[in-house]
Q: What sequence folds into this?
């Protein structure tokens, strides 16, 4: 594929709609419907499971199965306790950052619809200046404008209601995408774009391609663990986000150096099959796609681990999108990196032969 603009107007409309939609862990189905509707013209059929993972399949009758995968869920909160005077205390659903919560608007999802609320915080004038109390899980709270527990319950709010941030998609300085939930609906977007390009370029793959948008990654890779047992793939290429470590207060000696705008990040880790990783690197070099390297220790912390250690071992690799301000409402990525992840997955697929094992012993 020639080095040219990847995303078009339709792509951008889809990306914005998909990111703006709330799809918290355990409640991903509305986002999955948006994703499947976009993907439908480019695949032969869909597979879904009882927890909401969605898979678009090209060449479903092929015996050799290749997965490209992202995850669909976003971090959120649960209502955990309602006080007698109508305030809500919360627990995490995924890795929600308590330190960014104060003064944020929230959407509380109820059977009656969205209930608006705010994370309250004591005014600076009233706090002990000699001993500032930082935001913690046991002191952040949500105010929905009620004065009693009964009023709160009348709105449809109860313990167990899921809570998301309403922050929506923006473009910063022409080529930076900013939104909550880029981790990792950007992944779902990028694999969908790969499917679109394959279709538009009339590529005939010699294997079955399973474009997989997994649920529940944020609480332990659960959706990937389930769907890999259903698909039983021969190969998996996973895409997720990683940290741009060049911003303040990050120690590159411990976190490594990866930078937004410098290209996709290719991981080294026990779960990453070395020969598959080298194929991806060779593809990047041959097609002049910029890339970076990242080393993980025991695990990647992504769905790569779930695929790699399933079904007796599945050769798996991880291509990451460098992102600033992970698990905040202003997650930020570079447009060029998004396009280059898409390009790298696409070009790598074109090198894979039917039945290839990537074995060390061939």
A:
């Amino acid at each position: 594929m020639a080095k040219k603009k990847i995303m078009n107007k339709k792509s951008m409309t889809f990306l914005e709609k998909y990111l703006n939609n709330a799809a918290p862990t355990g409640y991903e189905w509305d986002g999955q419907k948006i994703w499947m509707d976009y993907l439908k013209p480019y695949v032969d059929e869909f597979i879904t499971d009882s927890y909401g993972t969605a898979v678009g399949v090209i060449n479903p009758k092929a015996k050799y199965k290749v997965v490209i995968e992202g995850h669909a869920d976003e971090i959120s909160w649960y209502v955990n306790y309602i006080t007698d005077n109508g305030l809500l205390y919360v627990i995490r659903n995924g890795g929600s950052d308590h330190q960014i919560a104060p003064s944020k608007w929230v959407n509380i999802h109820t059977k009656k619809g969205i209930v608006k609320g705010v994370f309250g915080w004591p005014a600076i004038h009233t706090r002990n200046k000699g001993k500032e109390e930082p935001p913690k899980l046991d002191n952040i709270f949500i105010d929905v404008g009620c004065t009693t527990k009964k009023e709160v319950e009348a709105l449809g709010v109860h313990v167990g209601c899921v809570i998301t941030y309403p922050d929506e998609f923006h473009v910063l300085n022409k080529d930076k995408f900013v939104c909550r939930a880029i981790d990792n609906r950007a992944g779902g977007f990028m694999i969908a774009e790969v499917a679109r390009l394959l279709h538009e370029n009339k590529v005939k793959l010699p294997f079955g391609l399973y474009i997989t948008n997994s649920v529940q990654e944020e609480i332990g890779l659960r959706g990937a663990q389930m769907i890999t047992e259903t698909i039983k793939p021969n190969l998996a290429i996973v895409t997720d986000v990683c940290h741009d470590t060049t911003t303040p207060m990050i120690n590159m000696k411990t976190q490594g150096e990866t930078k937004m705008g410098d290209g996709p990040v290719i991981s080294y880790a026990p779960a990453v099959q070395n020969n598959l990783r080298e194929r991806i690197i060779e593809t990047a070099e041959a097609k002049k796609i910029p890339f970076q390297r990242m080393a993980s220790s025991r695990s990647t912390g992504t769905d790569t681990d779930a695929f790699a250690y399933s079904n007796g071992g599945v050769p798996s690799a991880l291509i990451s999108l460098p992102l600033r301000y992970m698990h905040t409402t202003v997650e930020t990525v570079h447009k060029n990196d998004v396009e280059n992840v898409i390009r790298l997955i696409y070009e790598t697929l074109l090198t894979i032969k039917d039945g290839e094992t990537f074995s060390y012993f061939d």
Remarks:
- Residues 272 and 317 are 5 Å apart (CA to CA).
- The mean pLDDT is 97.
- Residues 9-74+180-349 form a domain with the Aminopeptidase fold (CATH 3.40.630.10).
